[in-house]
Amino acid sequence: RNFQILARRPQRPLYTSAWEPRGTNGVSCSLRRLTRFGKVESTDKMGFQNIWYSHPRKYGQGSRSCRACSNRHGLIRKYGLNICRQCFREYAADIGFK
To answer: In CA terms, which of 28, 44, 45, 70 is 20 to 30 Å from 97?
Structure first.
């Protein structure tokens, strides 16, 4: 019976890796490697991959995007819509503006 439950479980990849900042100001990074049995191996490395998308996005245009299409331009924030103008024209009747 346990074998049938395990057989139906989707297979996950054997190894996955992710770069995550560690320490103060992201100075040192750690390559965390998830092994097949869920153990985490980490090695301290510093490389160019740790700087991708590392700028803080808490305010400003870069922190907000359309909830429908993820566009960052022409965003309508009034009434908490957070939707770009093109999507607003498409969904205005559904929202209740026309």
So the answer is: 70
